[in-house]
Amino acid sequence: MAILLDTGYLFSLYNVEDKQHRVVQISYDQLLNGEYGIPIILDYVFDELVTLIQYRTNRNDIATEVGNIILSDCDKFIQFARVDKSIFSKSWEIFQNQSGHRHLSFTDCVLIKFADINRIARIATLDQQFKSWVEIVPH
Q1: What is the spatial distance between Cα 77 and Cα 2, in angstroms, rounded to a whole number?
Q2: 122 — phi, psi (to 5°)?
């Protein structure tokens, strides 16, 4: 059993001023206790997160600090996973074939395809769009 970590979820976790911070902190504590299985962060999510932090704060030191915390956690309890060419190609197909008013980012498409291929049933996210594909945490 495993759970993927989404960018917005992690951003809220490390941003104490975020309105969802407390909800995410509670679910993250449950995650650390093993309630949802092995937490996995994809290379795309790591990239998106540190870039988002750098952009929002205009401070590389804060983005670097959070990045180093996550990488340290990868040595302890979070699994770091890289996206291979097959997942990339299938994610690109999802991205290209979107229609409607609201679109998924390419990173979201990667998360969905990675979850599908690896039979991961949950994503830790604040984005309700994932509900069509997987169970989301927190509910």
Answers
A1: 12
A2: -135, 150
Contact 124, 134 (CB under 8 A): no
**How far apart are the C-alpha atoms of 139 and 135, rounded to whole Å?**
8
- Whether the pLDDT of residue 100 is over 90: the answer is no
Of residues 91, 132, 122, 93, the one with CA closest to residue 108: 91
- Structure token digits, residue 22: 């407390």
Q: How many domains does the chain have?
A: 1
| Rounded-to-integer distance, Cα 114 and Cα 79, Å | 14
How many CA atoms within 13 Å lie on the side-chain side of 85? 0
Q: What's the mean pLDDT in 130-134?
A: 89
Question: Can you give the residue range of the structural domain that contains 98?
Answer: 2-137
Q: What is the pTM of this model?
A: 0.93
Length of the chain counted residue by residue:
139
Closest to 11 in 3D by CA, of 61, 56, 60: 56
CA distance 134 to 10: 18
The CATH number of the domain where 105 resides is what?
A: 3.40.50.1010
